[in-house]
Amino acid sequence: MIKKLILFLLYGTIIFSCKKKNQDTLFELVSSEKTGIKFSNDLKEDEKLNILTYEYFYNGGGVGIGDINNDGLQDIFLGGNMTESRLYLNKGNLQFKDITESSGISLANSWSRGISMVDINSDGLLDIYVCRAGPQPAGTVDPENYSRPNLLYINQGNNKFTEQAKKYGLDYAGNTTQAAFFDYDHDGDLDVFLVTNVMERKGPNVIRPKRADGSALSTDKLFRNDGVKNGNPVFTNVSREANILAEGFGLGVSIVDINEDGWPDVYVSNDYLSNDLLYINQQNGTFKNEITDYFRHQSYSAMGNDAADIDNDGLVDFVTLDMLPEGNVRRKNMFGLMNYDRYLSEQRMGYQPQFMRNTLQHNNGNRPGTTHPFFSEIGRFSGIQATDWSWSALFADYDNDGKRDLMITNGYPKDITNRDFVVYRMAQHQEQMQSGKLDNAPTVAALKEVEGAHIANYLFKNNGDLTFNNQSEYWGFDTPSFSNGAAYADMDNDGDLDLIINNIDRETFVYKNNSDKFPDHHYLRITLKGTKENPHGYGAKVSVFYKNEKQFIEHSPYRGYQSTVENTLHFGLGKINKVDSIRIVWPNQKSQLLENIGADQVLAIEYKNAESYQKQKAAEQPIFFTELSESLGIKYKHTDELYIDFKVQPLLPHLLSQNGPGISVGDINGDTREDFYVGGAFRHSGSFFIQNARGEFTEKPLTKEKKFEEDMGSLLFDANGDGSPDLYIVSGSSEFPADSKYYQDRLYFNDGKGNFKHDISALPINTTSGSSVSAIDFDRDGDLDLFVAGRLTPGQYPAAPKSAILRNDKGKFTDITSQICPDLNSVGMVTSSLWTDFDQDGWIDLILTGEWMPLTFLKNKNGKLVNVTTSTGLAGTTGWWNSIVAGDFDEDGDIDYVAGNVGLNTEGKPSAKKPLTMIAKDFDKSGSMDPVISQYFGDILYPIHPRDEMTSQMNFLKKRFVYYSDYAKAGISDVFTTEELKDATRLICQEMRSVLLENSGNGKFKIKPLPTAAQLGPVYGITTNDYNADGHLDLILTGNSYAPESISGRLDAFNGLLLVGNGKGGFTPVSSASSGFLVEGDGKGLAELTLSDGNRLILAAQNNDNLKAFRSVDKRKDQITIRPHANEIRAEIILKNGQKRIHEWNYGSGYLSQSSQVFRLSKENISKINIYDSRGKTRAFPVNQ
């Protein structure tokens, strides 16, 4: 929706592909001449009544579908605004008769909104409840409290209705968007929730404290059914006593038992700044808004929504719509300046983060240790985030293949978000308003020239892997329109779902579904015959089982936007012609089970046959990990002082100041127990945590002095040869100008008892803002040398900073980069490093990951590092890489690698042919780099930044592009001249997936993407070990990033993940609900530590959040424990069958971290173990000791 005349807008980007129309479309638009439905929701604007005087002028009308005369055919009610609403009787074969006048329904100029079909008086006939809103008439004393009362049309039989809202207590006058009937108090009858949307004089996007006390005009209402009085049910407004008190400009509602406690909950999607609401039923007549416990961010201008199980896991997911356009031109014409300060202000005022795009909330199952679920927002991964000015979302299996697809309506007659109109026309209008000399005529005249969002609706096919494919054109959705409410039903009783869509200024769309013409599209349709007071079984849960598959629907017909779908539950079955069983759980928890049911029928299931049913439900017990942070004495919260990099470089894709902390593990006090260090941010000391004999920890801050450096990676290693680990800390971030002394790294020497002293003379001067550090005896002299990664140059992103190799000269370090590998002086923005022998020639090589970098392989050729990335087969891997670990994941005797990338839950899906492109230069000669990110739309490379963002960084572009419309059409070669582009830095990103690099031998690698669950967010932390005791290496991943700019929004869908390996290079994800491993925040460093009892502790650091510690019980029997000697780097394990496996010890791996050196494995099947050091010396480890 609009932002009280465009106060705030967001944006992002997406690649889309052209599609050719298929002659045999799934849907066929049937003409009004055939259907008889000639309804058009026509609007007439003038100077007194238009989008500028009534902000919801274009919100449109709803659709109500139901069988009003019980003839087995679904009838249609279409809501009109200025146009009279109409009732159509289905005569069969998609032919309808307008019976409005004869029915007794009269709704001329009534501004009908939501249409709800319900048998409200339990007489077996569907009644019609019409929600109304609309502009206030002239002379209204209190316009903020005025609205048209809702209307209730009681079905008299014989297709006659009488209006009785007041008699039932439902003549509420409060700008109602939609009504949803449900039994919230389990007394057997149907209550009703009213979604409201009342404009106030104070703009709805003005940042102010949230109002949750019922004082806001726009507060939803709950009416309780108090039973029959004087012949009909009477409803009472119980909103206050039920705690329905939070404000919100409501546009959509879903009724669903989200926490599976048997009680219906309410989800409301709200427009403008107001957050969405998730009212959890407290089982005592009250509700509690718990949305922040379930979701991590929301759509900004949320409109319609729907709830359904999109991946057939038995858990309900949510979609909510917004306004993000798909194409480049409309986006550029819509979006203004990114306002990060406002974004932060909203959160300080208690608002959950919101971003302008459709959101798809995927249900992860129950949070470990609880009985309620938590969600990951995956709309961009799924490909449904950008459908323009959208209204209704309807999940349903439109092609009968067993997976729920998604239909979205959209359109807006006058695009008053157009920046040229807003800036140049509305500015005059607002000046007049402020001066008190308002003359609407010029603005209204200008408004007539503004084009609308006149585009086709969307149909997405569910691919079965959490992604959707835009099939709109293929499936027959190719007619531009201004569409609002929509509903589905099998209108012609042929076994598939047809669609009815209410349009502004155009006749209603009646889409006939032709899936019955295609083979292997079986179905099962279920009608529920419930109790007398709930005759259609609203709230019942139906599960259909077949061939190890499950489909689940919770019955509520109030879906999408302002509409009611049919009461029959529809299950597509694809090739399945018989289902194994059907389980129905009724609202009062009685149940019945039906078995061996044939497909292609309408099955009636009656409540009277139900029996008592007790579902055994309890919080899932984690089987791998238990979170024990506080009980082990680990109470550390990382605090990052706010620094807004966008004020220095407005075009940055993300903050550069929120990249820590890291973790390093080692025995710092010589007691044989492993301790760890976690980094601190600017003005905050890092801390040691020292382990005692009980496996508990005591915190010891590194320093009590003032500290201005920001810790990034750290490393515990013996720098001076005294046998005790010393501490190296990389200084990074971007708070200070380039070359600040606060970017100088630090080396602290250990006295052997865990006391550390900073030696400022131990390191060469290097004031590069860095990231990671890793160690190896590179020169084979018996001590550990270092690679230190350069991460960034403040103010000059994406300039490549210096990375360095530091030779250990008896505890003093010398920079030998130019002698060993001059390329490292400008190799890129390095995020992680790993010393490893990737080609098994006995010389330790170096692998680097980085932003806008390929996975970079530097081969050690007799003590010199040479970039051999191209010859490895990985030259085409440029991405936004974060981390890397080593392991023999396919158990073939060489080392493979897993690398963490930004993931696929992002706007673009770049490729080798159409990569995301960075073009950087000081175009305006201001002394600061201008980093312009560009993306392909079609075959043209466009900057992704809105005009105002570009001009805030490069002021000269204001004159070059006076109008937003001109900038919107400009490719990168139009924005800059050939001369300006000539010497610009060009970087690309073509790979965003986190991957396994399978070693093929001879220095060659194959890329294999990790499973879908690992692609839902950026992967930072990685550790590897055999966590499930099956003999194969597994992975633990953490990630997310809260650093992106506020237009595209933070990446927060990742929860941490256990991937169980199969020993062949394949991995199976284990959900957090099953594994017990959950890291929902901005995950960064990740390390493994060995506890005093021999079990593992997984340490997960989060930026600006608590460090988490997870205990993992090592269940392997008859174990071998190997603690490597100084400079030992590799173990070769020979199995009894002659096969060989490799294990490497790394000083530094993953992201900014260092894990335990202790290596454990089962004795079973092991013949012998050889251990190698950095000089090539070998020792045999006694297997049977």
Describe it:
The protein is 8% helix and 37% strand. A hairpin with a 2-residue loop joins strand 53 (804-809) and strand 54 (812-815). It is built from 17 helices and 81 strands. It has three domains: 27-415 and 451-527, Methylamine Dehydrogenase, Chain H (7 Propeller), CATH 2.130.10.10; 625-910 and 990-1181, YVTN repeat-like/Quinoprotein amine dehydrogenase (Methylamine Dehydrogenase, Chain H, 7 Propeller), CATH 2.130.10.10; 916-988, no CATH class. The chain is mainly beta and 1185 residues long.
Furnish the topology, listing elements before pairings:
Blueprint: E1 27-30, H1 32-35, E2 63-66, E3 75-78, E4 86-92, E5 95-98, H2 100-103, E6 112-118, E7 127-132, E8 151-157, E9 160-163, H3 165-168, E10 176-182, E11 191-196, E12 221-229, E13 232-237, E14 249-256, E15 265-271, E16 277-281, E17 287-289, H4 291-294, E18 298-299, E19 305-308, E20 317-320, H5 328-334, H6 340-348, E21 354-355, E22 359-366, E23 373-377, H7 379-382, E24 390-396, E25 405-410, H8 419-435, H9 440-449, E26 455-456, E27 458-462, E28 468-470, E29 480-481, E30 483-489, E31 498-503, E32 509-513, E33 522-529, E34 541-546, E35 549-554, E36 558-559, E37 563-564, E38 569-574, E39 578-585, E40 591-598, E41 602-606, E42 625-627, E43 663-666, E44 675-678, E45 687-691, E46 697-701, E47 711-717, E48 726-731, E49 746-750, E50 756-758, E51 769-776, E52 785-792, E53 804-809, E54 812-815, H10 817-820, E55 829-836, E56 845-853, E57 856-861, E58 864-867, H11 869-872, E59 879-880, E60 883-887, E61 896-900, E62 916-921, E63 930-937, E64 940-943, H12 947-953, H13 957-960, H14 964-968, H15 972-975, H16 978-981, ...
Parallel strand pairs: 18-21, 33-41, 43-78
Antiparallel strand pairs: 1-32, 2-3, 3-4, 4-5, 6-7, 7-8, 8-9, 10-11, 11-12, 12-13, 14-15, 15-16, 16-17, 19-20, 20-22, 22-23, 24-25, 25-27, 26-29, 27-28, 30-31, 31-32, 33-38, 34-35, 34-39, 36-37, 39-40, 42-74, 43-44, 44-45, 45-46, 47-48, 48-49, 49-50, 51-52, 52-53, 53-54, 55-56, 56-57, 56-59, ...
